[in-house]
Amino acid sequence: MARGTLGTGRPEMTLFGKLEQISWTLVALLCVIAGAGFAMLYSAADGNLEPWASRQIIRFAVGLGAMIVIATIDLRHWLKWAYVIYAVSIALLIAVEWIGTVGMGAQRWIDLGVIRLQPSEVAKIALVLALARYFHGLTLDDVRRPRALVAPLAVLVLPALLVLRQPDLGTAVMLLIGAGAIVFMAGVPMRYFAALGVVGIAAVPLAWQFMQEYQRERIMTFLNPESDPLGSGYHILQSKIALGSGGLFGRGFMQGTQSHLNFLPEHQTDFIFTMLAEELGLVGALGLLLLYSGLLAYGVAVALRARSQFGRLLAIGVTTTLFLYVFINVAMVTGLVPVVGVPLPLISYGGTAMMTVLVAMGLLLSVYVHRDQDIRRRPGGDEP
Amino acid sequence: MQQHELRRIKMFNRRAAILGGAKLAMMTMLAGRLYYLQVVQSERFHTLAEENRINLRLLAPPRGRIFDRTGHPVAHNKQNYRLILVPEQGGDIARTLDSLAAIIPLDDRERSRILDDIGRRRRFLPVTIREHLSWSQVSRIEVNAPDLPGVSIDVGQVRQYPFGAAFAHVIGYVAAVSETELTGDPVLELPDFRIGKNGVEKTHDLALRGRAGNLQVEVNAHGRVIRELARNEGQPGDDVTLTIDAGIQEFAATRLGAESASAAVLDVGSGEVLAIASTPSFDPNAFNQGLTHRQWSELVNNPRAPLINKAISGQYPPGSVFKLVVALAALESGIAGPSHRVWCAGHVELGIRRFHCWKRGGHGHLAMTDAIAQSCDVYFYDLALKLGADRIAATAALLGFGRSLEFDLPGERAGLVPTPDWKLATYDRPWQKGETLNVGIGQGHLLTTPLQLAVMTARLVNGGRAIGPYLTRAVGRDPSAAAPEQAPAHSLGVSDWSLRVVREGMAKAVNGPRGTAHGARIEQPAMAMGGKTGTSQVKRITKAERDAGIVKNEDRAWKDRDHALFVGYAPVHQPRYAVAVVVEHGGGGSKVAAPMARDILIEAQRRGSPGGGIPTGALGRNAPEDA
């Protein structure tokens, strides 16, 4: 099926060939998870497709199409455009400061008419692409030099700071950890991470000193939600009550009292996992986590099979982004981390996270489709 | 494949394992957390979830009704039609209120009050627009229902006293629970709940209240009721049946009229109170909605004390009525027989003091029954001196004076029967002989309540049995359930012979041509009554006044006038009813109190309440002859 080349001397795949290469197992996994989400949105609306489930289905269909398109785009194109995409995302993050709209807490978006563009979501993908490209161009020896870390640190910190200004702590944390995972996978020596860890722990008391009173209160509330059951601890307490009352097998589909009687806030968005666990029990909750774990394992397998460093880092990067979504959301609703407003991808109502995750899965599939491609360290340059 | 590329792949694979392991560990942690919350802590959170969603609401039980002895309701619950509006169903509130204004007048103040309420409360909670709608208003609203979205009629209950003021002191009234009356019973905290504050409503409050039911509803986080889960209809309050005859009661209250007066009518055989009235009175229905400040201060500041039940809370010197007690004491102790005679010259001297008879110039020679009938003071000075205060007090106690009768209404006073010991203990001064004389004619420190006077009369004419007054016939859902069989009252241990003499005196006082109450006698022989007048002094008549002739009541200020008293019974041959009437500052007993008592006794006999009277034979055949 080799026909034509793109500078590698290897045979080029046809579009049909690429579609054949797409892992339909992964697509099926995505559909199952999204399907669970539709069911929960149907339940959240007391057994109605309106107002959430129907729209979510349309979004998913559109997103799925976009994902397939992205999967067929050559990896080298992504490499070539990586920095441009990054630059655009930074420009958007800066632009949103002036022309953006604030709503639902702290997230800022730019209204494009048909969709609301959240630059911070674009940044999640863009940062992964930029770092993957950067480290793709370095040898292992280059990576060991501290000088080589200056550029990626800047690339990483800039969007994180911009997002933190919005202020969107959840996304900032996701950007930092996601980027950190790529830096780690690129082979940066362990001692840097160890040093970072030590500095981080040492900084905790210092940070406490510099925090505002309300920020401290929020952390105290997180540590002891029962201390203020009607105030800020309300959400997390009601979430735990819903989870606990679900028990092993749940109260039954559409039977969750906490969600249906509105004790559980945001049960169609950030707290939808709680609702699922209330209605379907521990069995349902673990089942969903297992499905996500399947996706994550698949991502790691794709990374391991990719021939190019760019592909490997990209696969790990997008997988980690998905993992962070899932982990932070579930940890949040179970009271393990403070409430930071991270949705559960593919399940929570809302287009933004779904788009991000489907684009990420598109890139993962692209890595998979183009797993056997060799990509030169410097585009257009000679392989040493 | 170059060397460094291989090293990079090896490094990548190793780190992929580390990262993957870390993710796996974190996922496992989530699973562990879920296990902890959903299995280990499940029971606790399940309970909390149920507490969240299930709301227990109290259902106020309907208050028990109160009936008179003939089954007439004297306190019942009226439907209160309340107009309510649920704002969230109301659409355009202003338009709805406009349409309503066409049916029931709504002024601007009410309108803004309603809009305030709507603004303050959550939109699914009903707001009361108007209470106590008339039936025609209700039906007009029902007809116009399509134009009045969110408007509905809610039926509540409000206490109603059909006889109004006539029964006010017997039944009392209900009012909102005050802070100090909270016992922890949650039903008391319901906003519309009323409890008995006085009278029978208070005495039997717990029985009348019933037991609150409850309603388990499922609510959402905003408190809106989603559905009813379980309903437990508590228990309505018990009905109370009184011994009162509403007809006699109403008649007595009307007959006392505008005077500051009270009357009690007893069944002499059982002690059942057939009527107990006190005037002036008040409208207990007004207490339901709460009185205005002005209404309240008018009631409290009225010198004739409309809020006080004078029949049990009023304490008066009995005056000449007490001569019956002195006569009985003298007969029982053997000091004097019916034929004991005293010469009345209009006064007696004791030391340097002169004690007058009410009749200037005196009665001349009198035997006992005539002394009672003509109420000769000098005769009873003589008996009192011979008896001494202690023996009089003992007989008074036997007849029910000086302590509470344990009557079933709140506010009963004990009265006072003075003795030398009492005086020493209270005033630290010895008893004077003159005081014995004063007690002999029912003056001095002596205090009695009208109910005690009625009880005394009943005990004198029922063969000397210690009946106690009561007005609760039955407490229970079924008003036809008969009162528990009352054991016949025990005997006071007074001889029939003595009683007959006293009764003969009472019969003569009314029916004898020279009796003090002759003017108030009942003409129909079958209904004829016996009795005793009394006029008790409120203010001592000074010698100067006596000499100047200012002794007429009409010449004195209301507050200084004498109390008018009368105790009576009928029929005179076969006593069934005893009555006591006290008119505060009413003037003379024979002129004011006796005619009232006569009319009340006629009414009681005319109505002939069933199930009363004394057992035949208890009086013997030798009823006293009247003149």
Verbal overview:
The complex is a heterodimer of chains A (384) and B (627). With 384 residues, chain A is mostly helical. Chain A is built from 15 helices and three strands. Chain A has helices at residues 15-21, 24-44, 53-72, 75-99, 119-136, 140-144, 150-165, 169-185, 190-210, 213-223, 234-246, 257-260, 272-305, 309-333, 351-369, and strands at residues 101-102, 108-111, 116-117. In chain A, helix 5 packs antiparallel against helix 7, helix 5 (119-136) runs parallel beside helix 15 (351-369) and helix 11 packs across helix 13 (272-305). The longest helix of chain A has 34 residues, at 272-305. Chain B is of the alpha+beta class. Chain B has two domains: 57-242, Penicillin-binding protein 2a (Domain 2); 246-283 and 312-473 and 495-607, Beta-lactamase (3-Layer(aba) Sandwich). Chain B contains 22 helices and 20 strands. Chain B is elongated and about 155 Å long. The chains are: A mainly alpha (384), B alpha+beta (627).
Distinctive features:
A: 384 residues, mainly alpha, three-stranded antiparallel sheet, disordered N terminus, B: 627 residues, alpha+beta, Penicillin-binding protein 2a (Domain 2), Beta-lactamase, 2 domains, six-stranded mixed sheet, five-stranded antiparallel sheet
Summarize the topology.
The complex is a heterodimer of chains A (384) and B (627).
Chain A: H1 15-21, H2 24-44, H3 53-72, H4 75-99, E1 101-102, E2 108-111, E3 116-117, H5 119-136, H6 140-144, H7 150-165, H8 169-185, H9 190-210, H10 213-223, H11 234-246, H12 257-260, H13 272-305, H14 309-333, H15 351-369
Antiparallel strand pairs in A: 1-2, 2-3
Chain B: H1 3-40, H2 42-53, E1 54-59, E2 66-67, E3 73-85, H3 93-101, H4 108-120, E4 127-130, H5 135-143, E5 151-160, H6 168-171, E6 174-176, E7 194-196, H7 199-203, H8 205-209, E8 213-219, E9 225-232, E10 240-242, H9 246-256, E11 261-267, E12 273-279, H10 285-289, H11 293-301, H12 310-313, H13 323-333, E13 342-344, E14 347-350, E15 353-356, E16 364-366, H14 368-374, H15 377-387, H16 389-398, H17 420-427, H18 433-440, H19 450-461, E17 472-475, H20 496-511, E18 530-536, H21 543-548, E19 563-570, E20 577-583, H22 589-607
Parallel strand pairs in B: 2-10
Antiparallel strand pairs in B: 1-8, 2-3, 3-4, 3-5, 6-7, 8-9, 10-17, 11-12, 11-20, 13-16, 14-15, 18-19, 19-20
Helix pairs in contact in B: 9-22, 13-15, 13-16, 13-20, 14-20, 15-18
